[in-house]
Amino acid sequence: MTENEAAWITEPAEYPFKIHNAAKPKPGPGEVVIKNVAVAIDAAGFIEDVGSGVNRFKKGQRVIAHCYGLLTQDPAHGAFQLYPVTAESLVTEIPESLTFEQAVVLPLAVSTASAGLYRKDYLNLPFPEADDVKSTDKVLLIWGGASSVGASAIQLAVASGLTVFTTASEANREFVKSLGAHAVFDYRSSTVVEDISHVLRGLNFAGVYDAIAEEPSFAAISEIFDMLDSKVPVASVLPCDRPTERCIPQYVIAYSIIQEPHNDIGDWIWGKYLPRALANGAFQAKPDPYVVGDGLKTIQHGLDVQKKGVSAKKVIVTL
Protein backbone atom coordinates (compact mmCIF):
# COMPACT_ATOMS: atom_id res chain seq x y z
CA MET A 1 0.00 0.00 0.00
CA THR A 2 1.38 3.41 -0.93
CA GLU A 3 1.08 6.39 1.40
CA ASN A 4 -2.42 7.67 1.96
CA GLU A 5 -3.49 11.21 1.10
CA ALA A 6 -6.77 12.99 1.69
CA ALA A 7 -8.62 16.21 0.94
CA TRP A 8 -8.87 18.01 4.28
CA ILE A 9 -10.82 20.89 5.76
CA THR A 10 -8.51 22.12 8.53
CA GLU A 11 -10.49 25.14 9.72
CA PRO A 12 -14.10 26.38 9.55
CA ALA A 13 -15.30 27.43 6.07
CA GLU A 14 -11.91 26.64 4.56
CA TYR A 15 -11.80 26.85 0.75
CA PRO A 16 -10.49 25.00 -1.15
CA PHE A 17 -9.65 21.66 0.42
CA LYS A 18 -6.03 21.14 1.40
CA ILE A 19 -4.34 17.95 0.20
CA HIS A 20 -2.26 16.38 2.99
CA ASN A 21 -1.05 13.00 4.09
CA ALA A 22 -3.50 10.84 6.01
CA ALA A 23 -2.97 7.93 8.36
CA LYS A 24 -2.47 4.54 6.79
CA PRO A 25 -5.85 2.88 7.16
CA LYS A 26 -6.38 -0.25 9.22
CA PRO A 27 -9.74 -2.00 8.93
CA GLY A 28 -11.52 -2.81 12.15
CA PRO A 29 -13.77 -5.83 12.61
CA GLY A 30 -16.34 -5.96 9.82
CA GLU A 31 -14.56 -3.26 7.81
CA VAL A 32 -12.66 -3.09 4.52
CA VAL A 33 -10.04 -0.75 3.06
CA ILE A 34 -10.59 0.36 -0.54
CA LYS A 35 -7.97 1.56 -3.00
CA ASN A 36 -9.97 4.44 -4.42
CA VAL A 37 -10.26 4.84 -8.20
CA ALA A 38 -13.26 7.15 -8.58
CA VAL A 39 -15.17 9.43 -6.22
CA ALA A 40 -18.63 10.97 -6.34
CA ILE A 41 -19.68 11.50 -2.74
CA ASP A 42 -18.59 7.92 -2.11
CA ALA A 43 -16.00 5.50 -3.42
CA ALA A 44 -15.28 2.95 -6.14
CA GLY A 45 -12.12 0.91 -6.43
CA PHE A 46 -10.37 -2.29 -5.37
CA ILE A 47 -10.48 -4.07 -2.03
CA GLU A 48 -7.07 -3.42 -0.44
CA ASP A 49 -7.48 -5.04 2.97
CA VAL A 50 -10.18 -6.64 5.11
CA GLY A 51 -10.76 -6.72 8.86
CA SER A 52 -11.65 -9.66 11.05
CA GLY A 53 -15.02 -11.23 10.39
CA VAL A 54 -15.20 -10.05 6.77
CA ASN A 55 -16.13 -12.98 4.54
CA ARG A 56 -17.68 -11.41 1.43
CA PHE A 57 -14.53 -9.74 0.09
CA LYS A 58 -10.87 -10.33 -0.61
CA LYS A 59 -8.05 -8.16 -1.91
CA GLY A 60 -8.37 -7.12 -5.54
CA GLN A 61 -12.15 -7.30 -5.93
CA ARG A 62 -13.81 -4.41 -7.79
CA VAL A 63 -16.33 -2.70 -5.53
CA ILE A 64 -18.39 0.38 -4.78
CA ALA A 65 -18.88 1.59 -1.23
CA HIS A 66 -20.94 3.98 0.84
CA CYS A 67 -18.42 5.58 3.19
CA TYR A 68 -20.01 6.23 6.57
CA GLY A 69 -17.92 9.00 8.06
CA LEU A 70 -21.05 11.05 8.71
CA LEU A 71 -22.08 8.36 11.19
CA THR A 72 -18.72 7.72 12.86
CA GLN A 73 -17.18 11.22 12.55
CA ASP A 74 -13.89 9.43 11.84
CA PRO A 75 -11.85 10.88 8.92
CA ALA A 76 -10.74 7.35 8.02
CA HIS A 77 -14.34 6.67 6.97
CA GLY A 78 -14.54 9.55 4.48
CA ALA A 79 -14.35 8.97 0.71
CA PHE A 80 -12.15 11.92 -0.23
CA GLN A 81 -8.87 10.03 0.17
CA LEU A 82 -6.82 7.41 -1.60
CA TYR A 83 -7.60 4.62 0.89
CA PRO A 84 -10.92 4.98 2.72
CA VAL A 85 -12.25 2.49 5.27
CA THR A 86 -15.90 1.51 5.45
CA ALA A 87 -18.24 -1.17 6.73
CA GLU A 88 -18.48 -4.44 4.80
CA SER A 89 -22.26 -4.06 4.99
CA LEU A 90 -22.07 -0.93 2.79
CA VAL A 91 -19.96 -2.48 0.02
CA THR A 92 -20.87 -4.51 -3.04
CA GLU A 93 -18.91 -6.11 -5.86
CA ILE A 94 -19.42 -4.67 -9.34
CA PRO A 95 -19.30 -6.59 -12.64
CA GLU A 96 -16.59 -6.05 -15.25
CA SER A 97 -19.26 -4.57 -17.50
CA LEU A 98 -19.36 -1.46 -15.29
CA THR A 99 -16.53 1.05 -15.14
CA PHE A 100 -15.66 2.58 -11.79
CA GLU A 101 -16.85 5.94 -13.10
CA GLN A 102 -20.25 4.48 -13.97
CA ALA A 103 -20.66 2.52 -10.76
CA VAL A 104 -19.62 5.25 -8.31
CA VAL A 105 -22.81 7.21 -9.03
CA LEU A 106 -24.70 4.70 -6.88
CA PRO A 107 -23.62 4.29 -3.24
CA LEU A 108 -25.15 7.20 -1.32
CA ALA A 109 -28.17 7.28 -3.64
CA VAL A 110 -28.85 3.58 -3.11
CA SER A 111 -28.55 3.80 0.68
CA THR A 112 -30.71 6.93 0.85
CA ALA A 113 -33.37 5.47 -1.43
CA SER A 114 -33.33 2.17 0.47
CA ALA A 115 -33.75 3.78 3.88
CA GLY A 116 -36.83 5.69 2.75
CA LEU A 117 -38.39 2.81 0.86
CA TYR A 118 -37.79 -0.07 3.25
CA ARG A 119 -37.63 1.16 6.83
CA LYS A 120 -40.78 0.01 8.60
CA ASP A 121 -41.32 3.49 10.03
CA TYR A 122 -41.04 5.07 6.58
CA LEU A 123 -42.61 3.54 3.43
CA ASN A 124 -42.15 -0.10 4.50
CA LEU A 125 -42.09 -1.63 1.01
CA PRO A 126 -41.29 -5.30 0.39
CA PHE A 127 -37.61 -5.89 -0.33
CA PRO A 128 -36.59 -5.78 -4.01
CA GLU A 129 -35.80 -8.85 -6.08
CA ALA A 130 -33.20 -9.06 -8.84
CA ASP A 131 -35.16 -11.90 -10.49
CA ASP A 132 -38.83 -12.90 -10.57
CA VAL A 133 -40.29 -9.67 -9.22
CA LYS A 134 -43.69 -10.20 -7.60
CA SER A 135 -46.07 -7.44 -8.68
CA THR A 136 -48.32 -5.73 -6.17
CA ASP A 137 -51.30 -3.44 -6.73
CA LYS A 138 -49.54 -0.56 -4.95
CA VAL A 139 -48.53 2.75 -6.52
CA LEU A 140 -45.65 4.93 -5.32
CA LEU A 141 -45.10 8.58 -6.25
CA ILE A 142 -41.45 9.65 -6.48
CA TRP A 143 -40.93 13.40 -6.68
CA GLY A 144 -37.70 14.09 -8.60
CA GLY A 145 -37.10 10.89 -10.51
CA ALA A 146 -34.12 12.22 -12.50
CA SER A 147 -32.08 12.99 -9.38
CA SER A 148 -29.50 10.50 -8.13
CA VAL A 149 -31.72 9.33 -5.27
CA GLY A 150 -34.79 9.41 -7.48
CA ALA A 151 -33.16 7.22 -10.14
CA SER A 152 -32.27 4.60 -7.53
CA ALA A 153 -35.66 4.86 -5.83
CA ILE A 154 -37.52 4.24 -9.10
CA GLN A 155 -35.55 1.09 -9.84
CA LEU A 156 -35.78 -0.26 -6.30
CA ALA A 157 -39.52 0.38 -6.04
CA VAL A 158 -40.14 -1.35 -9.39
CA ALA A 159 -38.02 -4.29 -8.18
CA SER A 160 -40.29 -4.38 -5.12
CA GLY A 161 -43.28 -4.90 -7.38
CA LEU A 162 -44.77 -1.39 -7.23
CA THR A 163 -46.03 0.80 -10.05
CA VAL A 164 -44.07 4.04 -9.99
CA PHE A 165 -45.31 7.50 -10.92
CA THR A 166 -42.66 10.22 -10.93
CA THR A 167 -41.99 13.85 -11.73
CA ALA A 168 -39.26 15.11 -14.04
CA SER A 169 -38.66 17.78 -16.64
CA GLU A 170 -39.76 17.06 -20.19
CA ALA A 171 -36.08 16.76 -21.11
CA ASN A 172 -35.70 13.85 -18.67
CA ARG A 173 -39.00 12.09 -19.40
CA GLU A 174 -37.49 9.24 -21.43
CA PHE A 175 -34.65 8.84 -18.94
CA VAL A 176 -36.93 8.13 -15.99
CA LYS A 177 -39.17 5.91 -18.11
CA SER A 178 -36.09 3.86 -19.02
CA LEU A 179 -35.62 3.22 -15.30
CA GLY A 180 -39.10 1.73 -15.02
CA ALA A 181 -41.38 4.67 -14.24
CA HIS A 182 -44.93 3.94 -15.42
CA ALA A 183 -46.07 7.55 -15.69
CA VAL A 184 -44.09 10.81 -15.75
CA PHE A 185 -45.41 14.26 -14.86
CA ASP A 186 -43.71 17.55 -15.71
CA TYR A 187 -43.10 19.20 -12.36
CA ARG A 188 -43.05 22.59 -14.09
CA SER A 189 -46.61 22.20 -15.37
CA SER A 190 -49.19 24.51 -13.81
CA THR A 191 -51.54 21.52 -13.57
CA VAL A 192 -49.09 18.96 -12.16
CA VAL A 193 -50.96 18.65 -8.85
CA GLU A 194 -54.30 18.14 -10.57
CA ASP A 195 -52.80 15.73 -13.10
CA ILE A 196 -51.20 13.51 -10.46
CA SER A 197 -54.27 13.62 -8.22
CA HIS A 198 -56.48 12.58 -11.12
CA VAL A 199 -54.48 9.43 -11.94
CA LEU A 200 -53.96 8.46 -8.29
CA ARG A 201 -57.62 8.64 -7.37
CA GLY A 202 -58.97 5.16 -6.71
CA LEU A 203 -55.56 3.47 -6.77
CA ASN A 204 -53.78 1.75 -3.88
CA PHE A 205 -51.53 4.72 -3.07
CA ALA A 206 -48.61 3.46 -0.95
CA GLY A 207 -46.88 6.77 -0.33
CA VAL A 208 -44.42 9.36 -1.61
CA TYR A 209 -40.65 9.51 -1.82
CA ASP A 210 -39.60 13.16 -2.11
CA ALA A 211 -36.12 13.08 -3.66
CA ILE A 212 -36.06 16.89 -4.01
CA ALA A 213 -37.35 18.00 -0.58
CA GLU A 214 -37.69 21.71 -1.20
CA GLU A 215 -40.59 24.01 -0.43
CA PRO A 216 -42.23 23.61 -3.89
CA SER A 217 -42.19 19.79 -3.69
CA PHE A 218 -43.49 19.77 -0.11
CA ALA A 219 -46.28 22.15 -1.10
CA ALA A 220 -47.25 20.14 -4.18
CA ILE A 221 -47.37 16.85 -2.26
CA SER A 222 -49.49 18.46 0.44
CA GLU A 223 -51.91 19.75 -2.20
CA ILE A 224 -52.18 16.29 -3.74
CA PHE A 225 -53.08 14.83 -0.35
CA ASP A 226 -55.73 17.52 0.11
CA MET A 227 -57.23 16.85 -3.32
CA LEU A 228 -57.33 13.12 -2.62
CA ASP A 229 -58.48 13.61 0.97
CA SER A 230 -55.69 11.16 1.78
CA LYS A 231 -52.81 10.71 4.19
CA VAL A 232 -50.02 8.28 3.30
CA PRO A 233 -46.36 8.04 4.37
CA VAL A 234 -43.84 10.49 2.91
CA ALA A 235 -40.08 9.89 2.97
CA SER A 236 -37.91 12.92 2.28
CA VAL A 237 -34.20 13.46 1.60
CA LEU A 238 -34.24 16.68 3.68
CA PRO A 239 -36.23 17.77 6.72
CA CYS A 240 -39.54 19.57 6.24
CA ASP A 241 -39.97 22.68 8.40
CA ARG A 242 -43.68 23.04 7.72
CA PRO A 243 -45.52 19.73 7.88
CA THR A 244 -49.27 19.83 7.46
CA GLU A 245 -52.00 17.75 9.03
CA ARG A 246 -51.91 15.28 6.13
CA CYS A 247 -48.36 15.69 4.80
CA ILE A 248 -45.70 14.86 7.40
CA PRO A 249 -42.45 14.09 5.54
CA GLN A 250 -39.98 11.92 7.43
CA TYR A 251 -36.32 12.79 6.98
CA VAL A 252 -34.35 9.83 5.61
CA ILE A 253 -31.04 8.91 7.27
CA ALA A 254 -29.06 6.87 4.73
CA TYR A 255 -26.66 5.10 7.09
CA SER A 256 -29.53 3.91 9.30
CA ILE A 257 -29.81 0.86 7.04
CA ILE A 258 -26.84 -0.69 8.86
CA GLN A 259 -28.08 0.22 12.35
CA GLU A 260 -30.45 -1.73 14.56
CA PRO A 261 -33.34 -2.30 14.05
CA HIS A 262 -32.99 -1.52 10.33
CA ASN A 263 -29.76 -3.39 9.51
CA ASP A 264 -31.65 -6.10 7.65
CA ILE A 265 -32.12 -3.47 4.91
CA GLY A 266 -28.39 -2.94 4.45
CA ASP A 267 -27.77 -6.68 4.50
CA TRP A 268 -30.38 -7.28 1.80
CA ILE A 269 -29.62 -4.33 -0.48
CA TRP A 270 -25.81 -4.33 -0.37
CA GLY A 271 -25.22 -8.00 0.34
CA LYS A 272 -27.89 -9.78 -1.68
CA TYR A 273 -29.80 -7.57 -4.11
CA LEU A 274 -27.18 -5.27 -5.63
CA PRO A 275 -24.55 -7.90 -6.55
CA ARG A 276 -27.12 -9.90 -8.49
CA ALA A 277 -29.03 -6.95 -9.94
CA LEU A 278 -25.89 -5.20 -11.20
CA ALA A 279 -24.57 -8.44 -12.69
CA ASN A 280 -27.77 -9.29 -14.58
CA GLY A 281 -28.61 -5.72 -15.59
CA ALA A 282 -31.78 -5.48 -13.51
CA PHE A 283 -30.36 -2.39 -11.78
CA GLN A 284 -28.74 0.34 -13.87
CA ALA A 285 -25.93 2.60 -12.68
CA LYS A 286 -27.75 5.86 -13.30
CA PRO A 287 -27.64 8.80 -13.69
CA ASP A 288 -24.64 8.89 -16.02
CA PRO A 289 -21.29 10.07 -14.65
CA TYR A 290 -19.98 13.54 -15.44
CA VAL A 291 -16.21 13.37 -14.94
CA VAL A 292 -14.87 16.84 -14.10
CA GLY A 293 -11.35 16.16 -12.86
CA ASP A 294 -8.57 13.76 -11.91
CA GLY A 295 -6.86 13.64 -8.54
CA LEU A 296 -7.71 14.74 -5.01
CA LYS A 297 -6.86 18.32 -5.91
CA THR A 298 -9.88 18.45 -8.25
CA ILE A 299 -12.47 17.34 -5.67
CA GLN A 300 -13.14 20.96 -4.72
CA HIS A 301 -13.85 21.75 -8.37
CA GLY A 302 -16.23 18.81 -8.48
CA LEU A 303 -18.16 20.14 -5.50
CA ASP A 304 -18.29 23.58 -7.11
CA VAL A 305 -19.75 22.09 -10.29
CA GLN A 306 -22.30 20.14 -8.26
CA LYS A 307 -23.31 23.26 -6.34
CA LYS A 308 -24.05 25.09 -9.60
CA GLY A 309 -26.42 22.28 -10.51
CA VAL A 310 -26.48 19.39 -12.97
CA SER A 311 -29.42 17.55 -14.49
CA ALA A 312 -29.65 13.75 -14.72
CA LYS A 313 -25.90 13.44 -14.17
CA LYS A 314 -23.57 12.70 -11.25
CA VAL A 315 -20.36 14.68 -10.81
CA ILE A 316 -17.32 12.38 -10.64
CA VAL A 317 -13.60 12.79 -9.97
CA THR A 318 -11.11 10.05 -10.84
CA LEU A 319 -8.07 9.25 -8.70
UniProtKB/TrEMBL annotation:
Against Pfam families, the record matches this protein to: ADH_N, ADH_zinc_N
Point out the signal peptide segment: none
Question: Does the record bear Magnesium in its keywords?
Answer: no
Ranges for domain Enoyl reductase (ER) come to 13-265
Q: Which GO terms describe its molecular function?
A: nucleotide binding; oxidoreductase activity, acting on NAD(P)H
Q: Which domain of life is it from?
A: Eukaryota
The membrane-spanning stretches of this chain are none
Q: Which key words are in the record?
A: NADP, Nucleotide-binding, Oxidoreductase
- State the family named in the UniProt similarity comment for this chain: Belongs to the zinc-containing alcohol dehydrogenase family.
Q: Which PANTHER family match?
A: HYPOTHETICAL OXIDOREDUCTASE (EUROFUNG), ZINC-TYPE ALCOHOL DEHYDROGENASE-LIKE PROTEIN C2E1P3.01
| The protein, known as | Zinc-binding oxidoreductase CipB
